[in-house]
Amino acid sequence: MAKAGKKNPFKGRQFTAEIILWAVRWYLQFSISYRDLERMFSDRGIQVDHTTLFRWIQAYAPELDKRIRPHLRMTNGSWRVDETYIRVKGEWVYLYRAVDSAGQTIDFLLSPKRDAAAAKRFFRKALKQPHTVNPRTITVDKNAAYPIAMKTMKRDAELWRFAKLRQVKFLNNIVEQDHRRIKRLVRPGLSFKSLMTATRTIAGYEAMAMIRKAQVESAPANDMGAQRDFIATLFGAAA
């Protein structure tokens, strides 16, 4: 049941909040397609079309990302930043991602370009999050855009002036390994149809990953029941 005084995010839906959140949780954490999920529902006697499942993900994945942010544990000041590639409308775009030295997710940004402006947008987005701190060190690859972005942001007092940039590839293994999860999740869908649908879906992938990494104190990494209850609470729904 939605909490009194708050807008019910499931109002007007044909299916219950429990069914919708079940679909959202499972799609965002396992490597399955919308048609796979449609068959899983059918096995439970629930007939829901794969296009409806797509609409649910587009509506609730970014909402999950937004609602989870205030509940995340603080990340540390040692950032590991890297980009990977995602196919959108048949073209490759850049997915900027950052984790801290413990592997906790900091943030992500999907960008059609890989340049200093994109790097600054990513850093600014990450610095606004309630679970991040101004970094002591930022470890990146040899991309020349990062020194330019950091220099500009230090000059404008957007970044701590003593923050150190390290361009050492092997130190970034932790974020490169973390990319594999995103690649695995994206693969069943073959390609996103637009930058907006890609961004909304990936926001959900990242949010669910943060829960699975135990970045939420009340939802331990291997406790699926606690994770289910936490997400239901975020949306004001009965678990």
From TrEMBL:
GO biological process, one term: DNA recombination
Entry keywords, A to Z: DNA recombination, DNA-binding, Transposition
Pfam families hit by this protein: DDE_Tnp_IS240
Occurrences of domain Integrase catalytic (ranges): 66-187
Gene Ontology molecular functions: DNA binding
Keyword check for DNA-binding: yes
Keyword Transit peptide included in the entry's annotation: no
Protein name per its UniProtKB record: IS6 family transposase
